[in-house]
From TrEMBL:
Domain (Helicase ATP-binding): residue spans on this chain: 289-454
Function field: Plays a critical role in recombination and DNA repair. Helps process Holliday junction intermediates to mature products by catalyzing branch migration. Has replication fork regression activity, unwinds stalled or blocked replication forks to make a HJ that can be resolved. Has a DNA unwinding activity characteristic of a DNA helicase with 3'-5' polarity.
SUPFAM superfamilies xrefs: Nucleic acid-binding proteins, P-loop containing nucleoside triphosphate hydrolases
Pfam families from the UniProt entry: DEAD, Helicase_C, RecG_dom3_C, RecG_wedge
Record's catalysed reaction(s): Couples ATP hydrolysis with the unwinding of duplex DNA by translocating in the 3'-5' direction; ATP + H2O = ADP + phosphate + H(+)
Domain of life: Bacteria
One annotated GO molecular function: ATP binding
UniProt entry keywords in alphabetical sequence: ATP-binding, DNA damage, DNA recombination, DNA repair, DNA-binding, Helicase, Hydrolase, Isomerase, Nucleotide-binding
Protein name from the UniProt record: ATP-dependent DNA helicase RecG
Family, similarity comment: Belongs to the helicase family. RecG subfamily.
Length: 698
């Protein structure tokens, strides 16, 4: 505990303390973020394999990753599509086929009938029964010992195999044994939860080289104290880096936006509805933030249709009342266009000037807008990523609104912040997301943000009834579309990504539109997809909004933001291919009016387990929090939240779901640590967040 750890810079050279490390290998290690011996010690296994037991072939099941041992019975080379070598082995309890696509002559010569092989690999169902494709194998005799302990599998990079990496880590562990000062426990013991007080070196040793007494289950299911000890540190480091980013962000002052109520009350009166209590609460939270000389960084979570846009508009009005400008950003053209329409409709009657910036607009129009923004002739500019670009200069950016933020990264948030920085003052930021997540998870994933939740829908919404039907019942579905249109309602028909390329996807949508036009004569069918020109998309959307188009065939470009209350039926083709949150987003396009709405999920059987679970959840609930919660269980937080912004996918040993019970304690310790032991806090971040932390300003 006495000596401070050396700075990362001087650690670079200490890799040469390891045998066999030259510039070439050092470079490869660098690619893995390993610049010193200590980094190597914190390069943790992705998983462990149980090679301690030889499993009888007779008890093998598809999906098992295990060791088997048997005698070669038969060898053949087949030339079907590719040349492959098939080796069948048997152990008395059963047999197994080994399949190799790449093999050398020497290899082929050694694999003879009667040879005893020990193989490690994954058993899969093949045409001739169970097989292993490219197993690791070696020739053994009756007394060749099996592994004593679990085998770690490390994240690696091209040209650096597991064995080499394992050998390097062995050396690093040996160095640690001789030189305990190499690592120190950064956490004051009082800050570790009592049940996790385990020596750091010991914890690392267990994780890298689990002793024979530890089972795979104990390690992977996360209950083992060594794993939990390290997971706690990692989660803490993650939270610290976000808290620090937050503190840095708030260091520079913002302009306090005290409104003069010249616009806000008039706007509220002009609405043909009143805000829900949840919206009123969130509005108050936002206005309070805006009135302070510290930049707001607030995330508004709210289910699809909960009315987040009004909150954004209110915040914008407050900023304009104070003489500032507003940027409104959305991740897709269609969503940005939708915001443009909303903002224009709501703000222009109040005398505000609303502008548009997109990557796809004509150069002249773009130049004009850029100039107007720079001169302050535009109050609110709406757009896509184009707003982040360097040429965009504001006269006085007071507020940035970012919609659907799980698609934007932290760096973009930072780029934005620089836009307002000319006079050393930060713009306030309001971020909106329709992916609500449980509170404990938000504490870590969004530790740099304040969070508001709109937890109720406007009154009068009728829940969407969802059914899942196999493709074979398409004709019935088409008939239902016809009925719906005959009743004066409108319909979405969504063709999600099935093909790899956007081009093929758009073709699929075109084909569907064609088929539907034929099947539904007399019904006006429109088509929107990602490869259409913005003006064409716009005009189709306008005609759908106006009710001229009754049936809109679309790719998932309509996923977010589109608002046509008269649409009461949505068909989603190939629904088994979509994730839960996407399905929920799409479904949120219907159920916006007072008519009973439904959503038909068309799928192609057979369904795998996950797809079946997803469709089931969709049928069971309309509640976005529920959906998000179930989605987290199915996919894990990295996927759900987007990896870029949370760093969740880069977690080395912690798992936000499995270790979520640690999160409250992590949250409790982080701020005191940062305040009372700043040096330890920084060292902890360098240790765990390292390079990834740099972009959040650590
Ligand atoms: P989302 O949260 O998905 O972005 P929107 O802001 O698009 O939701 O709102 C969905 C619809 O609900 C819009 O037509 C909006 O005008 C309407 N709306 C918003 N707030 C209310 C309210 N308090 N009462 C009635 N309708 C509302
Ligand atoms: Mg929205």
């Amino acid at each position: 505990m006495s000596q401070p750890e050396a700075k990362p810079d001087s650690a670079v050279s200490d890799l040469v303390r390891l045998k066999g490390v030259g510039p070439k290998l050092a470079e490869k290690l660098g690619k893995l973020g390993i610049h010193g011996v200590r980094d190597l010690l914190f390069h943790l296994p992705l998983r462990w394999e149980d090679r301690t037991r030889v499993v009888p072939m007779g008890s093998l099941r598809p999906g098992d990753r295990v060791v088997v041992e048997g005698r070669v019975q038969h060898v053949e080379t087949v030339y079907r599509r590719r040349r492959s070598l098939l080796v069948s082995i048997a152990d008395g309890s059963g047999s197994l086929l080994l399949r190799f696509f790449h093999f050398s002559r020497a290899q082929q010569e050694r694999l003879k009938r009667g040879v005893q092989l020990r193989c490690f690999g994954e058993a899969r169902r093949g045409r001739r029964g169970l097989e292993m494709v490219h197993p690791e194998y070696r020739e053994v005799s009756a007394d060749t010992p099996v592994e004593e302990a679990l085998t770690p599998v490390y994240p690696t990079t091209e040209g650096l195999n597991q064995n080499r990496l394992r050998a390097l880590i062995d050396q690093a562990l040996a160095l640690l044994d001789n030189d305990p000062a190499l690592l120190r426990d950064l956490l004051p013991e009082s800050m570790l939860p009592a049940n996790l007080r385990m020596d750091l070196r010991e914890a690392l040793r267990v994780i890298h080289r689990p002793p024979p007494s530890i089972s795979l289950q104990a390690l992977t299911e996360g209950e083992h104290p060594a794993r939990r000890r390290l997971a706690f540190e990692e989660l803490l480091a993650q939270r610290l880096s976000l808290r620090l980013a937050r503190a840095r962000f708030r260091q520079d002052p913002a302009r306090a936006l005290h409104g003069d109520d010249r616009l806000v009350p008039t706007f509220l009166e002009s609405l043909d509805f009143t805000l829900t209590p949840a919206q009123q609460r969130v509005q108050a939270e936002v206005f309070k933030d805006l009135s302070r000389e510290e930049p707001m960084l607030r995330l508004v979570q709210g289910d699809v249709g909960s009315g987040k846009t009004v909150i954004a508009v209110l915040a914008a009005l407050r900023a304009v009342e104070a003489g500032g400008q507003v940027a409104v950003m959305a991740p897709t053209e269609i969503l940005a266009e939708q915001h443009l329409q909303n903002f224009r409709e709501w703000l222009e009657p109040l005398g505000l000037r609303v502008g548009w910036l997109s990557g796809k607009q004509a150069a002249a129009e773009r130049r004009w807008t850029l100039k107007a923004v720079a001169h302050g002739e535009i109050d609110v500019v709406v757009g896509t990523h184009a707003l982040f670009q360097a040429q965009v200069r504001f006269r006085d950016l007071a507020l940035a609104v970012v919609d659907e933020q799980h698609r934007f990264g932290v760096h973009q948030r930072l780029a934005l912040r620089e836009k307002g920085e000319q006079d050393g003052r930060q713009p306030h930021q309001l971020i909106m997301t329709a992916t609500p997540i449980p509170r404990t998870l938000a504490m870590t994933a969004y530790a740099d943000l304040d969070v508001s939740v709109i937890d109720e829908l406007p009154p009068g919404r009728t829940p969407v009834k969802t059914v899942a039907l196999p493709e074979s019942r398409r004709a019935e579905v088409v008939a239902r579309v016809a009925d719906n249109c005959a009743e004066g309602r409108q319909v979405y028909w969504v063709c999600p990504l099935v093909e790899e390329s956007e081009l093929l996807q758009c073709q699929a949508a075109e084909d569907s539109a064609l088929a539907l036009r034929e099947a539904l004569p007399g019904i006006e069918v429109g088509l929107v997809h990602g490869r259409m020109k913005a003006v064409d998309k716009e005009s189709v959307m306008q005609r759908f909004k106006a009710g001229e188009i009754r049936l809109l065939v679309a790719t998932t470009v309509i996923e977010v933001g589109v608002n046509v209350p008269n649409a009461s039926l949505m068909i989603i083709e190939n629904a088994e291919r979509l994730g839960l949150s996407q399905l929920h987003q799409l479904r949120g396009r219907v159920g916006r009016g007072s008519a009973a709405s439904s959503c038909v999920l068309l799928y192609r059987p057979p369904l795998n387990e996950i797809a079946r679970a997803r469709l089931e959840i969709m049928r069971e609930t309309n509640d976005g929090f529920q959906v998000a919660h179930r989605d987290l269980d199915l996919r894990g937080p990295g996927e759900v939240l987007g990896t870029r912004q949370t760093g969740a996918a880069e977690l080395r040993i912690a798992d936000l779901m499995r270790d979520r019970d640690l999160l409250p304690e992590v949250a409790e310790v982080a701020d005191p640590l940062l305040r009372d032991h700043p040096e330890a806090a920084h060292a902890l971040m360098a240790r765990w967040v390292g390079e990834a932390g740099r972009y959040v300003g650590v």
